[in-house]
Amino acid sequence: QSRPLPRETANASRQAEQHLEKRWTMSCDDTPSVKVDGRVPLSPVPGRGDLMLVDWLRSEAVGERAPKVACREGVCGACVVQVNGVALCSCLLPAWECSESVIRTARSLSGSSGGAASASTEASSCRPSSSRDPASSPSSMPSACAQISGLQPAAAALVRHGGSQCGYCTAGAAIILDDAASARRACSNASAVADVEECLLDGLLCRCTGYRGLLEAARELFSETEAPATQPQPQRPAGPWTGGCRLQSAEELLASWRRENVRLCAGGTSLGVLRALGGGGVSRGPCTELLEQVERRLTDEQDASARCSLLRTAGELRSCELLHDEEMRVGGAVTLTEWMGALRSGSHGWWCAAVADHLRRVANPAVRNAATLGGNLHLFAGVLCQPARSDLIVLLITLRARVRVRQRHDARLRTVSLSDYCHEAATDERTPLERYVAPRLLIESVLVPLRWPDPAATSPPRLWTRRLSSRGVNNTAEAVAASVCCGDGESSVAAAPVVVALRSRPQLLLVSSVEDQVARGLDACSRRLLGGLLAQRRSFASTATVTPPSPPSNLERAVGVRAAPGVPNERWRPRLDAHLQASGRCTYSGDLAVVHAAGTLHGAPVLSSRARSLFLGVNTERAVRAVAGARFLGAADVPGENSAFPVSDLCAADEPLFLPVGERTSFVGQWLGVMVARSAAEARRAARLVHVLYRSVNDDDQRTMEKHVESSAGQDEKRTAVHKANTLTEDKEEQDANATAIDGKGHRDGDERSAVLSVEEAEERGSFLASQSGGVSLMPPVRTCTPAELQAELARCEVVASGEVHTAAQAHFHLESQVAVACPEDGGQRLRVYSSTQDPRGVQCSVASALGLRAAAVEVEAIRLGGDFGGKGPRSLPVAVAAAVIAAVCGRAACLQVDRQTELLSQGRRHGMRARYTCGGDRDGRVRALQVDLLLDGGSSTDTSLLVANVALMNADAAYYVSHFEVGARVARTNLPTSTAMRGFGQPQATFATEVALCAFAAKAGLAPEEVRTRNLFGAASGTDVTPYGQRLADGGCTLCTTWRTLLRESEFAERRAAVDRWNAEERARQSGRWRGLAAVPLKYGVGYVPPALNQAAACVHALYADGSLVISHGGVEMGQGIGTKLAAVAAEVLGVLGMRAEDVRVAPTSTATVANALPSGASVACDLNARAVASACHQLRERLMPLCGPDYRPSYEAWCSLLSRAFFAQVHLSAISLGLYDEQADRFDESHSGPAAAPLRWDWRTCRGSPYRYFTYGAAAAEVEVDVNTGEVELLRVDALCDAGDSLNPALDIGQVEGAFVQGFGLFMSENPDAPEQRGSALCYSVPGVRNVAHQLNVRLLSPAERAPSGEEGHRRSYSGQRAKSVGEPPLSLACSVYFAAVDAIRAARQRSGEDASEFVMPSVPLTASAVRDLVPI
Fold first, then answer.
1. Which residues does the annotation mark as catalytic?
2. Is this structure's pTM higher than 0.70?
């Protein structure tokens, strides 16, 4: 006998069966249809196996560009759409599966149809966040009502709470929130509600906002959502799989499965896993090969609906039921979400709640809505033979589950244990592709016992599970463990071993202690992790009741204050385009119609898989045979200069666009050329099929080869010379074996000299970048005394601390990957380029140089960027140049968009850095001498490394005055991807080094680090406000001490310090292994480019007399910082006295045709300088119009329109252009400030003395953490941040920038390392902070005018910019190191309780990952 599970699961099966009957009665001539946002596309869904839903939606046939392509792994959330009412990742869902479906994108949230009632009818639609300080925030955002009119609640909430910056992920976020609200309304019990709130936004990666605005929007949305009803509610549709072109009954599905040319498809999420584990196709491995073969097979299936049968419609595979109350039967096609619902629907077994809790940490809701139980088991055990990568296998083996399987060509069912199934799959000698598309076994269902078969058990069994990952969810797990506990005490621990899955091992481990034979065979790091898991298991078993410490749900995170006291209410404005972002109507470069037009060509880079090897050419025979019309373009095809940076204001031209034949590769991932095809998918496929020929050479062989090759005149002769000088191995397998790399970075077995992969190796071999390149020179050491005086002072110090600390690199991970579109015009004489770049002028000049054109023949437009952080500065140039080369050579429009995996491998990152320090001072905490030596990892080419090193030199003083100071820097050349500009531009690494030095000094002196920081702040004593390079901070109004004291007071630092000490002194901290730490750091940040010529910007303002509107064209680029919104506010402030309204302003996209010679938007000066330019231009217009006003003029919209009309007919020029500069003349319109003028910008490169910065930004932050030393996990409890943003133009945007920068800094200091093998090459593996890394309590405040102007300080009155605001884009990132120091504080407390000497503690390197924490604290 059997009985079905209640409501949720049973309803899903009934719906499937009812729909099956309905579809089966339809005639064969019926054409299935699909609706997208309420409309039927002109063409039906194609039956191609390789076409994903996101690509079909964005195609020319449908034209729906709201879902974005960012990762293609189901991780980021930018592509999420609703299919039949369920949120799914459209990048993983084949388009043919969605026949007969209703699809909703974020565009459907822009109207009142569908979903809940329109938000425009709500009287309280513009109220501020409930957590915002009411005393310092407006009661409403003035222009929010106009923006949210007509928006659905989810989109409207995002607009109100600043839930978007760059906006690339906002459309997906809106759908996720809308789906979560619907799911919450459908919940029938409190446990299901908790699941929704716990998993909220787990499937979203946002690099801009810091998640605060998103969570505020969710809280408002959920507060307006009905509470769970006690009566049964209509159930949501079970999923999109309610129909198909070839829908069949269960028996016919199984009959078709027995034919060799038909494969069964369930959730389809395996492609995302293969892309993630494949490493981007550069580091060859089983997953890479399998992914290529699967995609090739899918492409070859012209009628995928006939070749792929839909398992999801088979009734017995979709059901859950209880068998004789002895075990639960779960169908193989049941999704993880459906199984979670079944487990929450009643008290079925002792393990149900624990399994449901664990499942909500697997993947994310949009993936769980599609992923099936059988598919997961088949992929990891049956195909990859890596059961340790599956959470479900760990859980089910622990519970002694069995599987019912059906043999291919055999209708009989047999039941085997899951362990036997894994073993049987591992003995299958077929290739992974054969196992993937033609499995011998079909998992019909999984049987999980409801009673624990242990007669010796003395108490009811309890299930313990743990999952360790850097984001907590939505990425690969470092370890998964599970165990059953029957009883209390050590006896239960010994009786029930732990099933453990480690990321470093493909097979599962069954251990009871670290002394087991299996455990002794592990490396030290794995044994330490295993010991921590066993310690947690022991703690769980020793308690009679289950009371594990649980963090708050996602909905409860980031609760706190957002405030800007003293700022007028009207400045709290949402972004101008926030409503477009939330409803998916914003256009990015990759959304343009020309990208998706039939005649547009697409490119994909061909990457090197080896470093320090001779590039002999490519064999494209396989690629051309597989992809019709594919073509390879390399260095010989570039019409002009083959340089990645032919013309750049910041970079040296020492990197080729495409590596010429006969040259040596520099790093794994270097561009060798591009494959061109008719679609992006075909281009990527062709690029992976290109066979690259190499030869390993040492330095002597390389020099001989270069001389021989240089004697050849042409490219063809050069290739011939290379082939004559080498013996080629044409066999691919032998060639691949010859190219095998150790850990994928370029090491090769048998090389006499391996690649240089660290700054230590570079230092040992003398591999450094030239100190002068491309007009940029590396500065000499910055010092306040001679070296001899410094050493003498150190000798006199009472306390001296020395050491070194490493800072790893960091990937930009902007969700919109690098993209450029090039369109030839006038027969190829002109070229229009749409580029996602922050340097349109650099793209213009570089494209012209590469094509042999004049710069005036190239027009570049940057619409908006989907994230940047410096990654779309120099590194955007080669992408745009490559697209332009394709367009010029082929004579057609061309698009090149780099996929996520390629971008992580080859597109640059933050500079890694090693810092050696010696810090000396007195025992009272006064630092008297500090020496710092910085060694930066510049990667394989110069790029911006010399400028970054210079910025690091000038910011190594951090926020402290030291009388005897010296800092020097060198830049190492390594065989790693080029390091480039990134948010902070060297300042975070250099500042962090000095903070580490002070902490080490404080430990030796026996003082608290905050006490040492307070004593040595700039301005803390008379004469201590001068930087090592001679600039006086008081000239710009130094608020550093005010900010620091205010932060310590408002964060209640002293009281919390005592509370943390009490916590760590209690026995529960030692028993649980959870220790707390607290730290605070100050910030001083110089704003602007050091070369004065780069501190300029231009803007053009046009007043249109027809309707009074205003158009602003400027040289800045919108990348999420809100420059357009701020410039519109500046124009409204200047011209508002004449009646112009803020809503009359339109900010045009940045184009070289409207504003020429614009410099890159970076260094936190874009808003500053462009605001000055716009203010100056608007003042020009105002001065021209004032004579026409007359004495009776009353400002109003009608009067403004009339004024412009009179001016036009009076032949008054209604356009104005101006240049924004940092000088006194630029401040002449700053009428409200009359303080002393600052010293002019000046800098002497020879002596490193002068005043390079117009002003400094100041800030401070305090962080409190809880560290689990058993597992290494760090939970961020509270963050308080205080920043000086000057007279903020828009506090909502500025606070959002602070929060986003802080979370990005958390990734730098705590989780991200692109060189770590476990994080390379995919979004699933790379540890970008997620919503679960956000602090429980987050308080962010801007300094008030009264705090910026204390009595007696006159310097504050100097004008900071045209509108008296300070930049906040980059500075707050450094404040995130407070989390690192708080974690170090907790680790020190744990070590002290273990008997370790705190003064001998060595400061750990960055990032302080979980494995690093475990290594620092012995068990």
1. 1370
2. yes
